[in-house]
């Protein structure tokens, strides 16, 4: 069966995507910083009859990234890597004149440096896959200027560019940066706690990600709402 690595898989979009892949028979290596929540998620995923390796830890830790890829290799390889784990840089978000530089460094370390580190660790296995793919979970803040979203948006813009270059350098892989749109997640609630407007559930955009896996379009940047609208 195909094998996927999904970071930040204990909740939100990561968990919803993991469940959808498990329902399709994918084996999974999943991570999150909260070990208890990750174990609960892994138990739910295993109920689909798939094999699940839960590897708690922080993606900024090189040893953890190595352990996560090793777990996937133990399941048979790496066919898909989903860099979903993200950090905001400030909770709640603040304007650039108040953004702590340590917070910005954390956002860049999680959203960019660790994402590339995991790609580098998994790349030999991805190259060996008959249909290797990398998904970088992006944001509309990477392409649009919104007040208070500067640090997070800058980190996601950097992730988008790394993904675009990776797609050029690894033409046999598919590398997709995907903007899922605004979702009802803990990340968004932490970013803008006073925003009470309803947001779609993460599961509502999962079909957009599955469409990419099914149709394997060219490497590039995609918006989940557009992928859903075109179905």
Description:
The structure is a single chain. This protein has 231 residues and is an alpha/beta fold. It contains eight helices and seven strands. The chain has helices at 12-23, 35-46, 62-75, 101-128, 150-169, 186-191, 206-215, 224-229; strands spanning 3-6, 27-30, 52-54, 80-83, 133-137, 174-179, 220-223. It has a seven-stranded parallel β-sheet, sandwiched between helices. Helix 1 packs parallel to helix 2 and helix 3 (62-75) runs parallel beside helix 4.
Key features of this structure:
alpha/beta; 7-stranded parallel sheet; 7 strands; 47% helix
Rg to the nearest angstrom?
Answer: 16 Å
Number of helices, counting only DSSP H or I runs of 4 residues or more: 8
* Major sheet size, sense and barrel closure: 7 strands, parallel
Distance between the termini: 26 Å
Give the DSSP E fraction (strand runs of 2 or more residues).
5-15%
What fraction, in percent, of the residue positions are helical? 40-55%
| Strand elements, count | 7
Secondary-structure element order, as H and E? Answer: EHEHEHEHEHEHHEH
- Shape descriptor reads globular
Can you give the mean pLDDT?
97
Structural class: alpha/beta
Which residue ranges are poorly predicted, with pLDDT under 50 across at least 5 consecutive positions? Answer: none
Major sheet: arrangement of strands: 3-2-1-4-5-6-7
Short overview:
This protein has 231 residues and is α/β, with parallel strands linked by helices. It contains eight helices and seven strands.
How do the helices and strands line up, and which of them pair or pack?
Blueprint: E1 3-6, H1 12-23, E2 27-30, H2 35-46, E3 52-54, H3 62-75, E4 80-83, H4 101-128, E5 133-137, H5 150-169, E6 174-179, H6 186-191, H7 206-215, E7 220-223, H8 224-229
Parallel strand pairs: 1-2, 1-4, 2-3, 4-5, 5-6, 6-7
Helix pairs in contact: 1-2, 3-4, 4-5
């Amino acid at each position: 069966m195909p094998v996927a690595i999904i970071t930040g898989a204990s909740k939100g979009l990561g968990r919803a995507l993991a469940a959808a892949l498990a329902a399709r028979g994918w084996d999974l290596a999943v991570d999150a910083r909260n070990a208890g929540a990750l174990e609960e998620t892994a138990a739910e995923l295993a109920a689909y009859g798939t094999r699940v390796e839960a590897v708690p830890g922080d993606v900024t830790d090189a040893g953890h990234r190595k352990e996560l890829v090793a777990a996937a290799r133990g399941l048979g390889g790496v066919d898909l890597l989903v860099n979903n784990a993200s950090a905001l840089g400030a909770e709640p978000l603040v304007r650039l004149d108040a953004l702590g530089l340590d917070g910005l460094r954390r956002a860049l370390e999680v959203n960019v440096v660790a994402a590339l580190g995991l790609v580098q660790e998994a790349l030999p296995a991805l190259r060996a896959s008959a249909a290797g793919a990398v998904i970088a979970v992006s944001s509309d803040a990477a392409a649009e200027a919104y007040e208070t979203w500067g640090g997070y948006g800058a980190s996601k813009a950097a992730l988008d560019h790394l993904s675009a270059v990776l797609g050029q350098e690894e033409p046999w892989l598919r590398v997709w940066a995907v903007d899922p749109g605004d979702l009802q997640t803990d990340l968004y609630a932490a970013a803008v706690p006073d925003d009470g407007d309803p947001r779609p559930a993460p599961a509502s955009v999962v079909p957009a990600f599955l469409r990419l896996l099914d149709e394997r379009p060219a490497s590039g940047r995609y918006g989940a709402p557009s992928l859903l609208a075109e179905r």
